[in-house]
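Form 12-C: Joint structure prediction
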Amino acid sequence: MSFYRGMTCENVTIKGDKGTPITAYVARPSGPGPFPGVVLIHHLPGWSELYIETTRRFAHHGYLAICANLYEREGGGSDGNPDDVAAKVRAEGGIADSQMVGDTAAAVAWMRAQPDHNGKVGLIGSCSGGRHAFIYACQRKDIDACVEQWGGRVVMAKEELNPKTPVAPIDMTKDLGCPLLGLFGNDDRAPSPEQVNQHEAELKKHGKNYEFHRYDGAGHGFFYWHRPLYRPEQAMDGWDKIWAFYGKHLAK
Amino acid sequence: MCTSIIEIARAEGMAKRGDQWFPLSRSVVAYDHARHAPLGDVITLDFYNTDLDAGARAAIELTLETAKELRAALDRAIAAAEFEEAEVRGKGAVLSFVRAA
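Section 2 - Result
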């Protein structure tokens, strides 16, 4: 194999929450496998190019990767411009946590059904996707490792709860079923360093297997290479943390 | 979303999308991460028609400072418009007459 691994990419249709068909982007490393799997949960800006590229990045590093379009119902199928669809979702107060869990479960099931999969699944998400990844890791027991990147609204006041987000994720901590890697910027306001402290204290209280890395000089979304928020030094260190974490927990 | 700062209002009017205008049904104001402007958090304005496809949308991302300037400009224009409307309907004239008396 050459240093730069080849891959094949395609869109697949999976049966999302309540059996609704949704589109998912798949990147499959070349070679016979078996490959560890990574399921990506996109951020509030939607099934964006950033997430599609990040899906390929995992394949480049030898992971079978899938990223489902969690906003498919809101935007006229996978043809909808992700930016417009995300704005519509924002106006509707985001998607329901339960729907996200159903859709993500379908992506995990797809992964586990692949003949070149090694039987291990890692989950990763940033921003609202970080929050979603943590929720999923607390509610389902079918993943082996979870990476939460600056998940906003893990800590929620009672008045913030609504039918779409009926339980604050922090209150699910006792049910976390796999190791957790958390990456946060200390200049972030959502989540603020104080909220990250609360998040960590709850993990500690319940004796969970977690590691948090908190970066000075970085705010929200410091991995986003196309935004002014990008902090290359902190982002590359964060990537090293992800490779080490998944290397440890997803190898077979 | 990460900030949860969002306000929704009814909208009557039209907005431009490419070369076409479409009727509006909703205005959405949020404070959230910029998607396009080379900025951190921004005031976003989205004008929509909820009965059309998601692309039926006119979108703006503004700094907090220039959003305040826009609000002030809107307030001035609306105040002047209401005065104008009152005059057209004769209410302004009545008031002037009452005052003069």
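Section 3 - Comments
The interface with chain B takes residues 44-45, 74-76, 80-81, 83-88, 90-91, 93-94, 127-128, 150, 152-153, 160, 189-191, 219-221, 227-229 of chain A (CB under 8 Å). Chain A has a mean pLDDT of 94.
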